[in-house]
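We examine the record.

___
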Amino acid sequence: MSSTIDVILPVFLVLGLGYVAAWRKILSEEAIDGLMRYAQNIATPILLFKSISALDLSRAYDSGLLLSFYLGALISFCVGLLGAIFIFKRAMPDAVAIGFACLFSNSLLLGLPITERAYGAAALAGNFAIISMHSPFFYPLGILCMELARAHGHNLSSRQIVIRIVRAVALQPLIFGVAAGFAANLSGLTVPGSIQSAVGMLAATAIPTALFGLGAVLRRYKLDGDKATVAMICGCSLIVHPALTYLLGHSVFSASIADMRSSVMTAAMAPGVNAYLFAHYYGVAKRVNAAAVIAATALSIATIPFWLHVLP
């Protein structure tokens, strides 16, 4: 138990310090926004570039790893979507946003540091393989479903919907880091040592800065959404998705131990702030998704040790 606490406690201490800094107004709202822009638009894309450029692509992109994680995510999305419609009687756009919260685990800000602390930096190849496909896969799915839900009665053409999807995905800063990483990896070009050193320095700031900023950003939201719907999102994110990923990886795809660790621990993370931002962008289910991000992040302190115990 003490070793498990040693794994997860530092991560949540950094996140909590960000929360306290925002609560006590040590940092202004503008400073927090600037910190998050740096983390999301500069440091994290550079971290993805550095990591993907050095990946052994033939080994990292294992079909069992990816299928177990993404099939689990799709089923979790469907459970959240259908539950919102048939149990909680939410409108279709609301239901899509709620399903998106059940789908989009915080793979980068929580999944990476916890997996690294639990299993070492060498265990992160599978995490980066999942992360490299996270936004390109999840955002088009969420945007497509939302645009189809909103297009009902508005006569949006297929071309308009495709343009919206492509624009939204292409403008994600993380996509630039992923694309540059693949380009460097596949080209075989050697990056000069001075540039590698600069990249390494910036990449090292990504996770602690993003964790601190996430804690500060969470201070802005309140636990005032529909409690039953929030509980469903937490259940899908913290139990359904990782359980499905574990069962699929272990019993169907015979994933390796390393891949199981990466896929299950990534699936076990709470929804990220992106779940709220997606709802905010479309103006639907904002309170529910904001509350779910906070509640699931807090509850994951209890559920993450369980998954660490289950995994070999």
Observations:
- The CA atoms of residues 74 and 103 lie 7 Å apart.
- The two ends are 15 Å apart (CA to CA).
- The mean pLDDT is 91.
